[in-house]
Amino acid sequence: MIEKLDELFVIFKEKLAPLSEQSDVLNLKAEYLGKKGPISDVLKSLKDATNEERKTIGSKANILKTEMQGLVNTKLQGIELATINKKLDENKIDISMRNSISVNDTNHGSFHPVNIIQREVEDIFISMGFEVLDGTHIEDEFHNFEALNIPGDHPARDMQDTFWFHDPHGPEEKKKLLRTHTSTIQVHGMTERKPPFKFIGPGKVFRCERTDASHEMVFHQLEGMLVGENISVSNLIYFMKTLLSEIFKKEVEVRLRPGFFPFVEPGFELDIKCLICGGKGCSVCKQVGWVELLPCGIVHPNVLKAGGIDPEQYNGFAFGLGLDRLVMMRYGIDDIRHLHGADLRFNSQFKDY
Ligand code: FA5
Fold first, then answer.
1. Which of 36, 33, 15, 37 is CA-nearest to residue 24?
2. 222 and 135 in a common domain
3. How far is the CA of 234 from the centre of ligand 1 (A)?
4. Do both 133 and 31 map to the same domain?
């Protein structure tokens, strides 16, 4: 009887080994371990056996039953795992495929050159501890002019031809306009913080101007302001020099000359030697060899007062970088109108930057 049980076990294992379907395994289990299976037959036949036989054969049969059940469980787990792996393989994404797709097949977008340079300038100033502020395109007369020491009858208003919003029912003093410069951000920035502080504010500005190679009606500026105690022109020059050397990563020739802006005193024009013509004269620099890029100066006491700051205790500097012209100098673009022509052939040249 013992040999018969051993034989049964060997055959069971041989039959189980090649099975790969769960249902076949369960059928085999029912065939061998079920109530009408050979093991049950052996156990039933023990009723006429001696006590000794009943003990040895019964215990052998139970051991085999447990072993068979164990083999069945292992087999079922193996089948379940194989099924999961098969499903995973079917849904697998081959990430190495990315390398086999030609770059030319994908028409991915790119940043506009003005955004590229704006981000670079922001990073430079952030690394020097400046905050980056935002402003609104639509402003009121106070923030665009009056708080900047440009009252209604001041001739400096003519320097920035303004797009006004006509509101026939609105009060005269609340007249709205499209901001003509990012200096509006100075006014908001000052009133919202206490000195010492330093921030920049980039954005679009709007002027009702005739366009040419270096003038647009909608262009970009980046305002900067630092207020503290005992700020001098040499502090201002240090920051301007750092900005230009970081942006151009090479020696560029600049000149500082007196400039008039009602909101700074003294005021300066910082010009860059035209990188389009090398200073020989072209349409971008209007044949003078220099391009106006970075007007700046020491903040006028009236402006500090309008911002709620005591000019007896604090002073500071401000500047208004012409971002589009900086982009032109950096990439050698000989007409500002290329920047806003929405010509994708132009824009796509900056993909690698
Ligand atoms: C201003 O707008 C002053 N708010 C700048 C300033 C800020 C001065 C703080 C002092 C202190 P301006 O009008 O010069 O200044 O313009 C600043 C820069 O913007 C110019 O140097 C030039 O680079 C650029 N810019 C001016 N007009 C145009 C235009 N029509 N198209 C393109 N860029 C322009």
1. 15
2. yes
3. 21
4. no
CB of 285 closer than 6 A to ligand 1? no
Question: Is 103 inside a domain boundary?
Answer: no
Is the same domain home to 337 and 212? yes
Q: Are 241 and 154 in a shared domain?
A: yes
φ/ψ region of 135 (left if φ > 0, alpha if ψ in -120 to 50, else beta) reads: beta
Does 52 reside within a domain? yes
Residue 220 within a domain? yes
Distance of CA 183 to the CA centre of its chain: 26
Could you tell me which residues come within 8 angstroms of residue 242 by beta carbon, excluding any fewer than 6 positions away? 124, 128
Give yes or no for residue 38 CB within 6 A of ligand 1: no
Check: CB of residue 303 under 8 Å from CB of residue 265: no
Domain residues for the domain of 296 are 113-350
Peptide bond into 196 cis (omega under 30): yes
Query: Given the structure tokens 């923030």, which residue do they identify?
Result: 143
Is the Cβ atom of 325 under 6 angstroms away from ligand 1?
yes
Burial of 274 (0-12, 13-18, 19+ CB in 10 A): buried
Decide whether any atom of ligand 1 lies within 6 Å of the 261 Cβ: yes
Q: How far is the CA of 219 from the centre of ligand 1 (A)?
A: 10
pLDDT tens string, the chain, 353 residues long: the values are 788 889 999 999 999 999 999 999 999 999 999 888 888 888 888 888 888 888 888 888 889 999 999 999 999 999 999 998 888 888 877 766 655 555 555 667 788 999 999 999 999 999 999 999 999 999 999 999 999 999 877 777 777 789 988 766 666 656 899 999 999 999 999 999 999 999 999 999 999 999 999 999 999 999 999 999 999 999 999 999 889 889 988 888 889 999 999 999 999 999 999 999 999 999 999 999 999 999 999 999 999 999 999 999 999 999 999 999 999 999 999 999 999 888 888 888 886 55
Do 138 and 54 belong together in one domain? no
127 and 60 in a common domain: no
Residue 101 forms part of a structural domain: no
